[in-house]
Write a structure and sequence with these properties.
heterodimer, A: 189 residues, mainly alpha, Tetracycline Repressor, domain 2, 0% strand, elongated, B: 214 residues, 10 helices, disordered C terminus
């Protein structure tokens, strides 16, 4: 008879992500995860096979959650430039000082894993298209190319905030993107 | 000291400088291409053909190597084009040209993204990089402030905010590139930077430059 799992895969992957967040992906091993969740290392090997599979599964879970957050933000954000900013501000909610590293760590892993890299590309393309859609009615030259620019500016603002950790991240993102759209002459209505 | 001893001393200082510079160059390339965490001091020593001990003779640790590599390349690739503008230069042209040369700074951006990732879990890296970034930004802001009138930058313009924008655009591009996304065209990227740079000359209620169609 198969014994019921006392800890779900998702809970284990959550703990794995926590290790990655705290100490970087290279710190994740069956040993460190076993110590954190109180299971035997051999049990974890049975479930995930290899350290690479474990890391990939954890990062895919992170991507699934990010995609779900993104879909929600797209649904809730209004039209126009203001909607575009709101969408990115909502997605910046995950960048709390203790969890800021998530996306950067995920993106860094993508350099080595084509599956995760494709997730990153798809995610950024969805954001860029959603922004361009919101700006396409702007007669001053919104639309084409601006989606990438605004996503770039957003990611850059987050990265700089990661270095500086000054003020609230959402306030910083809103200020930075609002100023950019104003200066580029893109209406925010 | 004899003349010969003096000459040998000078040569050994020069040799040490050259080795340090070569190590920085190599470390920058390896960190950017293979990843900061994935590159050990031993890997670097193997590539450089020196011992790990020799590397520690030049740098306290890997974090210092990373910070110095970013610092050197930022000065050479980003600031050389923008700080201390010649009297007859136009900063709009300069920033637009710099945007058009975006491809040549790809490795620098990859290096900074590696640094940003490492900084999340390593306090020393974060502190070092924050200080380096602050110094570069301050120098850049001071350069624009000094020439504000000559460059025609509006008196109400927050130069620091503008510099932070340019810096953020560079870092953000590095993040996108890390998953293989490039600006759709270099020309449109430069065009948008040009629109932004021109807005610096307008007061807040008129900061809406007409898009340049080309």
């Amino acid at each position: 008879m198969v014994r019921p799992r006392t800890i779900s895969d998702e809970a284990l992957l959550d703990s794995a992500l926590l290790i990655v967040r705290e100490s970087g992906p290279d710190s994740l091993s069956f040993g460190t995860l076993a110590a954190r969740v109180g299971l035997a290392g051999s049990t974890l090997v049975q479930r995930f096979g290899s350290k690479a599979n474990l890391l990939r599964a954890a990062l895919l879970l992170a991507w699934d959650r990010l995609d779900a957050d993104t879909a929600r933000a797209l649904e809730r954000a209004g039209d126009g430039g203001a909607g575009a900013i709101e969408m990115l501000v909502m997605l910046s909610g995950q960048y709390r000082p203790d969890t800021f590293a998530d996306q950067l760590l995920i993106l860094r892993e993508d350099l080595r894993d084509p599956v995760l890299r494709a997730r990153g590309q798809a995610w950024l393309a969805v954001l860029s298209d959603a922004i361009e859609q919101r700006l396409s009615g702007d007669a001053r030259g919104g639309g084409a190319g601006l989606g990438d620019l605004i996503v770039t500016q957003w990611q850059g603002t987050l990265t700089m905030w990661g270095f500086r950790r000054r003020g609230a991240i959402k306030t910083e993102v809103r200020r930075s993107l609002t100023d950019l759209l104003d200066r580029l002459g893109i209406t925010r209505d | 000291m004899t003349e010969r001893a003096g000459s040998q001393g000078r040569r050994s200082v020069e040799d040490a400088r050259a080795t340090r510079s070569r190590l920085l160059e190599l470390a920058g390339d390896l960190f950017a291409e293979r990843g900061y965490l994935q590159t050990s001091i031993r890997d670097l020593a193997t590539h450089a053909g020196v011992t790990s001990g020799a590397i520690y003779g030049h740098f306290r640790n890997k974090a210092e190597l990373l910070a110095e590599a970013i610092n050197t390349r930022t000065a050479a690739l980003l600031e050389a084009d923008t700080i201390g503008l010649p009297r007859n230069s136009d900063y709009i042209e300069t920033l637009t040209r710099q945007a058009a040369r975006v491809a040549k700074r790809r490795r620098l951006r990859a290096l900074i993204v590696q640094g940003a990732s490492a900084a999340q879990t390593d306090l020393e890296t974060r502190t070092r990089l924050r200080e380096e970034q602050r110094a570069h930004i301050d120098e850049w802001v001071a350069g624009f402030e000094r020439d504000r009138e000559r460059l025609g930058i509006d008196s109400t313009m927050d130069v620091e905010a503008a510099v932070l924008y340019v810096w953020a655009a560079e870092l953000g591009l590095g993040v996108l590139e890390s998953v293989g996304i490039q600006p759709r065209t270099i020309r449109s990227w430069a065009d948008i930077q040009n629109r932004f740079a021109r807005s610096w000359q307008l007061p807040p209620d008129r900061k809406r430059p007409t898009p340049r169609r080309s």
